[in-house]
Specification:
By secondary structure, the chain is of the alpha/beta class. Helix content is 44%, strand content 15%. The chain binds 3-methylbut-3-enyl trihydrogen diphosphate (2 copies) and magnesium ion (MG).
Length: 246
């Protein structure tokens, strides 16, 4: 693994968790006169490259928003093509994850997927569970609002069943019921394709996240552009509501 001097200078203030809304696959395909699914296919290749670059740089957590809860409302053919692509991606990436020692985790509503896909996701999670340097999180059938509601409902169930006594709901307690409790809040959120919105991603967790928007469509995004976003992040002054100088 060789790093450029620019990459080495980045290490000083590397985000612990980068989250990416990989948007613009459809528009990219349309621009090329191709069917939307070929845009998704190209997008999956970019996702693989950014994952490897994150591993090389030493970013501990990378979350990729691949499919939202709302995306089920897309045309049936697009949804089923995306599901096939997901299976292909998991099959082809498992060896890479094992080789590069990347732990895989899914966040989102697993039950929304056909059982064979649920099984495959679980298999990749299990086979990579021992790795600790980097975790790749794939947000699938994910909705920030659904995650908060799930946490509240699970908590209520715990209390009603008597497994948990009367409690005051604190931030720490609520987080225990999120999809992946140990996941730190994102330090940096990247969204491609020029859309300036969060589209129901990590609503609770984005409280102090730095945002980086680019007009590039996801299939056009490169390792160099990723480094650029990390450089911009490095120059941001994060204040968390405090005052650092007068
Ligand atoms: C992002 O690209 C991938 C998914 C949401 C699955 P889009 O499919 O949203 O592409 P655009 O936004 O239509 O260009
Ligand atoms: C957000 O993109 C979801 C993913 C990238 C997976 P969308 O394309 O679904 O979001 P909107 O519809 O533009 O808000
Ligand atoms: Mg989109």
């Amino acid at each position: 693994m060789s790093s450029t001097s620019q990459e080495i200078s980045l290490q000083v203030s590397l985000p612990r968790h980068v989250a990416i809304i990989m948007d613009g696959n459809g528009r990219w395909a349309k621009k090329q006169g191709l069917p939307r699914i070929l845009g998704h296919r190209r997008g999956a290749e970019v996702a693989k490259k950014i994952t490897i670059k994150s591993r090389e740089l030493g970013i501990p957590y990378l979350t990729l928003f691949a499919f939202s809860k709302e995306n089920w409302q897309r045309p049936r053919e697009e949804v089923s093509a995306l599901l096939s692509l997901l299976v292909e991606y998991l099959d082809s990436e498992l060896p890479t994850m094992l080789e590069k020692e990347i732990r895989f985790k899914m966040i989102g509503d697993r039950e929304d997927f056909p059982v064979e896909i649920q099984r495959k996701i679980l298999e990749v999670e299990k086979k990579t569970a021992q790795f600790s340097q980097m975790t790749l999180v794939l947000a699938l059938s994910y909705s920030g609002r659904a995650e908060i509601l799930k946490a509240i409902n699970d908590l209520i169930k715990e209390v009603q069943s008597g497994r948990l006594g009367k409690v005051e709901v604190t931030e720490a307690l609520l987080r225990k019921y999120f999809y992946f409790p140990e996941l730190p809040d994102p330090d940096l959120l990247i969204r491609t394709s020029g859309e300036l919105r969060v589209s129901n991603f990590f609503l609770y967790q984005l409280a102090y996240t730095e945002f980086y928007f680019t007009d590039l469509l996801w299939p056009e995004f490169t390792e160099e552009e990723f480094i650029k976003a990390l450089e911009v992040y490095k120059r941001r002054e994060r204040r968390f509501g405090k005052v650092y100088e007068f």
